[in-house]
Structure prediction request, 360 residues.
Amino acid sequence: MIEVDSVTKIFPGPSMDFTALGGVSITVKDNEFFTLLGPSGCGKTTLLRVIAGFEYPTSGSVHLDGMDLLSLPPYRRPVNTVFQSYALFPHMTVAENIGFGLEMLNRPKKEVRKTVDEMLDLVRMTEMADRKTSEISGGQQQRVALARALAPRPKVLLLDEPLSALDYKLRKDMQLELKRLQAETGITFIFVTHDQEEALTMSDRIAVMNAGSVRQIGPPREIYDHPAERFVADFIGETNFVGAELLEIEGEGEGFARVRLSSGIEAHVQAPSGPVANGPVTLAIRPEHAWLVEEAQGLLKGKVENVVYFGTDTHFHVIVDGGDLFVLRHQNQPGQMQHLAVGDRVGLQIGRGAGQVLRD
Ligand code: ATP
Prediction:
């Protein structure tokens, strides 16, 4: 188990210091596929470098199974890193690259050979063992980089956007491959990406970061279905934001909240993740949880502002009374097309409990 506690990292600047990490705390469980997700510059790489030992934090602590990692130099930490640039040795063969780290650790020749064979098998590169790494494809190089990092059997593997240099198809294949490698080796993976889809499909849990702090931690489904705040709802998937008045929170914790919408109608939605005062709030509503109805039947009412045809579906942009923009998708199926035009008045229906009250 990795425990990162209140880690800050301040880079001194000529005129102003820059806070790259502003008190980050995360606990990564043994054997977990844990992802750090956030926009460029939010501090993901810096956090990974602190865990790896390439960067020393300004304050805070990092423990692995109770052991103080910060007191150890990088090469003494039972942690290995796979970088975006694979940093393989081009003049060495695939097998030599994989065995390199083990040789540096002075492991016996026989053990090195055995481990290299196992790793070649694990990443399905046995046939290419004797090729130079300059003579294999980008996807194959990434497999070799993974095998090399896994060979010393680290307790934790840190992966810094390892798939971003690959084309779309290969990236999809390697996502499954990484999941398989993690499950087969039982090594804890801490994976950095700014790609929300990658994070949702691969992770056991995700920490969503923004501007040097962790905004929410949870399993993919929880992050998607119950975003805690506007940044998380906006960064992951598509979301509509509408204003409402919070009237009452029913039940503790995971309960529902009663809100009054801009139409004056009351609705039940998901309660916020933390304390929120009654009064004006923002609701996040996923497009797939809303559909168009006659104005009189809608929980929200408004006017069609734009109709965008996409082939498989059509997107309706509706300005809800009160001014919020709401985008709905309507699947184009025979006989189901709604003949709505710009300027038409419409109602929006929302699945019961589908909206989420956001924290400030
Ligand atoms: P990306 O997805 O673009 O790699 P990131 O979330 O990994 O972004 P970091 O590389 O951790 O972001 O950087 C966080 C912030 O810290 C950035 O604004 C970056 O410019 C700054 N930073 C990183 N390293 C240094 C440094 N050595 N000196 C000064 N500022 C730094």
